[in-house]
Amino acid sequence: MIASCPFHYAGYRSLDEALIARVIDIFPLALVTRHGATGVIASHLPLFRSADKTLFGHADRHNPLLGDGESFEAHVVFMGPASYIPPEAYVNPQLPTWNYVAVHMTAQVAPIVDDEENFAILQQTSERLGRRTDSSFMAERADPRVVRNLPGICGLRLTPSHVEGRFKLSQDKPPEDRAAALAWLLRQPDPEAAALLQTLLDR
């Protein structure tokens, strides 16, 4: 049984369903973690909300996260923007901190092996992500790429038992410092991060 891990200062915790939904919709890539027979297993998977408050996604059928193919309990984390906030970012003297937006969830994960259900998940996934990225791609049943890869895909249906937002944005500071910290968080990405991504791409 995975605990709901409710710890955080009250000012940073949120059970606001609308805000939590917005975070998941904008940052759908989740870290899904379970306790398996050989220890902790974790995988990054894009997950999407359904109207009935469940979530769906898919994984490679060989992903060890799926274990024996039975339903399992997992801890799921969606991460939004995050940044170190140095003292010079503030208007008033403050100590440095780290601000971030995250959603934590405990959920029962049910693997789906039916090809038609999994194809429907592929279609919904491409539709959701296409709307966000101006991509015209839609999964089509006759597409040779879909035909070739569908047997290796396992759909997932997640039923949450506990969900909370953890929105740490210097709420404990005066208004002018909250605004300054937010401006720092929203600045352009660190050039070193861009260089790292290029290095990883060139390997």
From TrEMBL:
Task: Give the UniProt keywords, A-Z.
Answer: Hydrolase, Protease
Q: Which GO terms describe its biological process?
A: proteolysis
Q: What one GO molecular function would you report for this record?
A: peptidase activity
Superkingdom assignment: Bacteria
Checking Pfam families in the record gives: FMN_bind_2
InterPro entries, per database record: Split_barrel_FMN-bd (IPR012349), TR_PAI2-type (IPR007396)
Secretion signal: which residues?
none
PANTHER family, per this entry?
A: PROTEASE SYNTHASE AND SPORULATION PROTEIN PAI 2
Q: Per its record, how is this protein called by name?
A: FMN-binding negative transcriptional regulator
Query: What organism is recorded for this protein?
Result: Serratia rubidaea
What gene codes for this chain? paiB
